[in-house]
TrEMBL record:
Keyword field contains Protein biosynthesis: no
Keywords attached to this entry: Ribonucleoprotein, Ribosomal protein
Coiled-coil region list: none
Protein name as annotated: 50S ribosomal protein L7
C-alpha cells in the first residue's frame, strides 16, 4: 500500500472514530470551538473554500494544509461523494495523517506542532490513568519529580 492510500485510510479511521468534521459548516464550528487540530483543503477546492478555510484558521488557530487529493478522493476516503474541506480533531490521528504524506507536502513546523500536541495528550492520558489507579487503591496523585 502506498503512502497516499495510507493517508486516506487514516481519514476513514478518523471518520469511524468520530474525530473528523466534514464540510464548511461543521469545520467552521469545530475550528471556532477550538477542537480542530488540522484543517485539510482539497487540491481542486474553489477559491471561496480556501478563503473560508483561512478564515476558520484565524478564528480557531488550527493549521491549514492544502493536500494533493481531489475532492472525490477525500470524499471516497470518508464515505461521501466529494469533500473539499475536512478538520481533524485528534492530534495523534492528524500527526499520523501528515506523516503519511509525501515529503514535499508536509511542512516541518506543522509536524513539530502536532508532535508537541500529541506528546502533551499522551502525558495527560498517562497522568489520568495513574490518578484513576490511585483512586482505586487509595494512593495520591503523583506530584512533580523530586518532591
Amino acid at each position: 500500500m502506498d503512502d497516499r492510500q495510507r493517508a486516506l485510510n487514516y481519514l476513514g479511521l478518523a471518520r469511524r472514530a468520530g474525530r473528523i468534521a466534514l464540510g464548511e459548516e461543521p469545520c467552521g464550528a469545530v475550528c471556532r470551538s477550538g477542537h480542530a487540530r488540522l484543517l485539510l483543503v482539497a487540491a481542486d477546492a474553489g477559491d471561496h473554500t480556501f478563503r473560508r478555510a483561512r478564515s476558520f484558521a484565524r478564528s480557531g488557530k488550527p493549521p491549514v494544509l492544502p493536500v494533493s487529493f481531489t475532492k472525490e478522493e477525500l470524499g471516497g476516503a470518508v464515505g461521501q461523494r466529494a469533500c473539499a474541506l475536512a478538520a481533524l480533531t485528534d492530534a495523534p490521528l492528524a500527526l499520523a495523517f501528515v506523516q503519511c504524506l509525501p515529503e514535499a507536502e508536509r511542512p516541518a513546523e506543522l509536524l513539530e506542532t502536532l508532535r508537541t500536541q500529541t506528546a502533551r495528550i499522551e502525558k495527560r492520558r498517562k497522568e489520568e490513568k495513574a490518578h484513576q489507579a490511585n483512586i482505586r487503591h487509595g494512593g495520591k496523585k503523583p506530584g512533580p519529580a523530586g518532591k
